[in-house]
UniProtKB/TrEMBL annotation:
<dbReference type="InterPro" id="IPR002403">
    <property type="entry name" value="Cyt_P450_E_grp-IV"/>
</dbReference>
<dbReference type="InterPro" id="IPR001128">
    <property type="entry name" value="Cyt_P450"/>
</dbReference>
<keyword id="KW-0560">Oxidoreductase</keyword>
<keyword id="KW-0503">Monooxygenase</keyword>
<dbReference type="InterPro" id="IPR036396">
    <property type="entry name" value="Cyt_P450_sf"/>
</dbReference>
<dbReference type="GO" id="GO:0004497">
    <property type="term" value="F:monooxygenase activity"/>
</dbReference>
<keyword id="KW-0349">Heme</keyword>
<dbReference type="GO" id="GO:0016705">
    <property type="term" value="F:oxidoreductase activity, acting on paired donors, with incorporation or reduction of molecular oxygen"/>
</dbReference>
<dbReference type="GO" id="GO:0020037">
    <property type="term" value="F:heme binding"/>
</dbReference>
<protein>
    <submittedName>
        <fullName>Putative sporulation-specific N-formyltyrosine oxidase Dit2</fullName>
    </submittedName>
</protein>
<comment type="similarity">
    <text>Belongs to the cytochrome P450 family.</text>
</comment>
<keyword id="KW-0408">Iron</keyword>
<dbReference type="Pfam" id="PF00067">
    <property type="entry name" value="p450"/>
</dbReference>
<dbReference type="InterPro" id="IPR050121">
    <property type="entry name" value="Cytochrome_P450_monoxygenase"/>
</dbReference>
<keyword id="KW-0479">Metal-binding</keyword>
<feature type="binding site" description="axial binding residue">
    <location>
        <position position="439"/>
    </location>
    <ligand>
        <name>heme</name>
    </ligand>
</feature>
<dbReference type="GO" id="GO:0005506">
    <property type="term" value="F:iron ion binding"/>
</dbReference>
Length: 498
């Protein structure tokens, strides 16, 4: 009995030592950088703080002073960079600061199992391969018809939902998820998902997302190594496998049955690469999943933030509606929409204050380096960046950095576009990342936002439900949890009068 007790104590001590070694800041971290205490991670989870609250409470002041800080995330200590010069250096030197996604950083997690090695988080060599295969499908010229059709169905569903929710506002995130999934499926994967009609794939994904993005396993991925001991985690891993199988089977069926004329469809390009041996079956699966996930998440969350801003600021909503209706009438001509200055500045300001990805922990030093010739970085050190921190830094954007002011970008489209390019080059504005890893589907996202905002302001007026309990998300993505809006349908006469 004493031997068994001694062995048990030994295992406990070994486990405790291992945890202590894992949680304490390693000596390889830059000595001169402030360390954000580990207890802040625990408190943030306990108090259910949003990512914005965490940043403003504990990170903003030391990061703006020093340009970088050390923070704990994804089970390890990271150097979080928030100075524009340092961020640009990080982006430019991919050979030194290579991508390392969750399949590398946290392979035992449900998220790591879901996304695998893909075009977003692959190393330089694999990224070149994926880009050569996928770029024609991501950057082709898109027909506006599916955007118009799906956005009109979205508005129909919101109006119908408001009639059901007669005493309170409509919960918008579920509808925005369905809408963005439908567009990604038809534009990139070559099939009609019909999520707005209650498709099984969308219902399955709705169950998967809360589990793979669980705040505890995102901060402490080691918990997922014991997934088989926890029934809820066993269920999440099972759902991940089911979702992977359903999506893979659906896409393969459509790529085989659709005519050859869809050769620039992303799913067909990946199918051709799979058949020719350029990529493996696992790489095909991972890139299909990341296309669907990243392709819908970022615009879904941006729309939600946009509806929140417009629902809280009726003057901005009315101004947007007036400009859109005066220029285009009842049909959203994409070229005409791209020439509207207030719509353009509204979108860029929305991306500034509410970047869909507020921070990204997916870089790792491949060798000894020196950030800004002053921050020593040891090999295998995880390096991250913050878009929210850069884009709300008053040292860059002035005393109104935290305020929503579309006018800051300019009054004409050429002036606005020049300002965006200038701030991007300076490293002040990175909602789409930058350099070789700049979002390849940026134009798809902007077209989607323009057309959908047109359809929303043309047909409905909305305000944020005063009874709704809204909080911003706690993970790396930016979206308002619990957002409900009260919707009033506009007839044609109302729209003209605005």
């Amino acid at each position: 009995m004493q031997i068994v007790t001694a062995i048990a104590i030994g295992f406990l001590l070994a486990g405790a030592i291992k945890i202590w070694i894992r949680l304490r800041p390693p000596s390889s971290l830059p000595r001169d950088l402030p360390r954000i205490p580990l207890y802040t991670v625990i408190l943030a989870l306990w108090w259910d703080l949003s990512n914005f609250e965490i940043y403003n409470r504990w990170i903003r002041a030391p990061l703006e002073k020093h340009g970088a800080v050390c923070v704990f995330h994804t089970g390890r200590w990271n150097v979080l960079v928030g100075h524009p010069g340092l961020v640009n250096e990080l982006f430019r030197n991919e050979a030194v600061y290579s991508k390392a996604g969750n399949h590398v950083r946290a392979p035992s997690t449900a998220l790591g199992a879901l996304v695998g090695d893909n075009i977003v988080n692959s190393t330089q060599t694999n990224h070149r391969l994926y880009k050569s295969v996928m770029q024609p499908g991501l950057q082709r010229r898109f027909d506006a018809a599916p955007f118009i059709e799906k956005s009109r169905i979205l508005v129909d569903r919101l109006i119908a939902a408001q009639k059901v929710e007669s005493h309170r506002g409509v919960l918008v995130l579920p509808w925005l998820q369905k809408f963005t999934l439908d567009l990604v499926a038809v534009c990139f994967l070559g099939f009609e998902m019909k999520a707005l009609n209650g498709a099984p794939v969308e219902q399955l994904l709705t169950q998967v997302k809360p589990g793979v993005f669980h705040p505890i396993t995102m901060k402490f991925p080691a918990f997922d190594r014991l997934w088989w001991l926890v029934p809820s985690r066993r269920r999440i891993f099972q759902l991940v496998r089911e979702f992977d199988h359903v999506l893979y089977t659906t896409v393969r069926q459509h790529t085989r049955s659709n005519p050859p004329g869809l050769s620039n469809m992303l799913s067909h390009l990946l199918e051709d690469a799979l058949q020719s041996g350029q990529i493996t079956d696992k790489q095909f699966r991972s890139n299909i999943i990341v296309t669907l996930m990243a392709g819908h998440d970022n615009t879904e969350f941006l729309f939600a933030c946009g509806m929140m801003v417009l629902g809280r600021n009726p003057a901005i909503q009315d101004r947007l509606r007036t400009e859109v209706m005066a220029a285009t009438g009842a049909e959203p001509a994409p070229d005409a929409l791209s020439r509207l200055p207030y719509l353009t500045s509204f979108i860029y300001e929305l991306l500034r204050l509410y970047p869909p990805i507020s921070q990204m922990f997916n870089r790792m030093a491949s060798r000894h380096a020196s950030l800004g010739d002053r921050i020593p970085i040891q090999p295998q050190t995880s390096v991250a960046w913050t878009a929210y921190g850069l884009q709300t830094n008053p040292q860059i954007w002035g005393p109104t950095a935290a305020e929503f002011q579309p006018e800051r970008w300019g009054s004409t489209v050429p002036e606005i576009q020049a300002a965006v390019r200038r701030e991007t080059v300076r490293g002040h504005y990175i909602p789409f990342s930058a350099y070789s890893r700049k979002c390849p589907a940026q134009e798809f996202a902007l077209l989607q936002v323009r057309v959908t905002l047109f359809e929303l302001v043309r047909r409905i007026r909305w305000t944020v439900d005063p009874q709704a309990e809204i909080k911003m998300s706690s993970g790396t993505h930016t979206f308002p949890i619990g957002l409900r809006v009260i919707i009033d349908e506009l007839d044609a006469l109302d729209a003209v009068k605005v």
